[in-house]
Amino acid sequence: MGHEMKDHIVGPMPPEEFLQEFLPTSQIPHYDASSFNSAFTAGTFSSTLSAADEQHAYRPFINTMKSFAPQLSFIDSHSQADLVNCSSFTFSIKPDVCVYADTTSCGTDISTAEIIIEFKWGNCHDAFREVGDSIISPTDNGMDTLGQITSYAAAQLGAQYRSHAFSVLIVRDRARIIRWDREGAIVTGVINYNTEPYLADFFHRYARASPELRGIDTSVSLASFKEAALARSQLNLPNTKRMFKVSIPAVDGPGMLTLIIPQPVAQGLPPVGRGTRTCPAFDLLNKKVVMFKDSWRVSLPDILPEGETYKLLKSHKVRNVTTCIACHDVPHSIPQQYAQTIKFSSAAWARPNSAITPHILHRLALDIVGEKLTRFESSRQLVQSIRDALIGTYFGTAK
């Protein structure tokens, strides 16, 4: 995934600016900067740097960082791959350290992980560089590292409802913080984390930040026990499947359509782009199964949102087009929940990049749930399906 991602990375953003932009203390209630300033001193992470190799650095790093973010759980996960949420990946998803918001998680669970930390103990494995036209290292080892951290971000964004995610790359005594969204990634300049406060300050702020600042999509919430049980029975899902609730404005009338949807599954695709997710959902009000779609659409003036396109086709009575019953561009409560990469792609400190396509989160619901084309019962049914699609396409473009 490194090659697919390399043109969509923006940096190096000054660490102090990164923190102020994405985790501003003004948006963290009751934040006390003095508690951090009195705790961090040069040499705080000396025990990490004295480790003989990468694997022996995990534990001292975790023990030290806990003092700055006691609300978070730092778990050594390097030998425990996520075998549940990442089955579509052709390689193991097992970050060196996973950071969780609870005290019960263990190993790698990409569906609940808050921050991924990857360690490298040799400079040749650094995914980034300080000099040159590009911030990306051109070496094979560097590209391998970029592919590795990109795959972790892809898994996290794919298995959770998130607006963005943070990760950390540590190369012995240097660190960089990365913010990932569907437009690309923003990476900081080098942080000498044993003598500079920015990495410890990042975790100190993150631990006290709101879910919105952390990147949680707060327009989606956990379904209640009763709602989840009802939806699982209607969708034929196992009792262990986590269920969520989302509301979308109805096309007809002023009300909202409330849907119960399953936890998404990471698809093993790069994080940049639409990140489209579709699944059957249970409509709580009408007690029926509908089709739910969640996608980061391209946000340009001449591109009509998909939900509006369905409505336009229906208004012209185009044949063989399903009915969109709810849709909207998802409004967020704070600016940081919108994709940010394009905004900073032309900053004075940004090296040349190709992060040029803005995206915005769009959701819709359709009134029917189709079958996969591969499940046709006869060749006649397959041909009829293609015929119907061609008719809809012809009249949709002709009108």
Brief overview, please?
This protein is an alpha+beta fold and 399 residues long. The protein contains 12 helices and 14 strands.
- Distance N terminus to C terminus? 41 Å
* Main sheet record: 7 strands, mixed
> What is the multimeric organization of the chains shown?
single chain
Shape: globular
Mean pLDDT: 91
Low-confidence stretches: none
Q: Considering DSSP H and I runs of 4 or more, what fraction of the residues is helical?
A: 25-40%
Can you list the strand order of the major beta sheet? 1-7-6-5-4-3-2
Q: How many strands?
A: 14
The proportion of strand residues reads: 15-25%
Number of helices: 12
Rg measurement, Å:
23 Å
Q: Strand pairing plus helix content: what structural class?
A: alpha+beta
Written as H for each helix and E for each strand, in order along the chain, the element string is HEHHHHEEEHEEEHHEHEEEEHEHEH
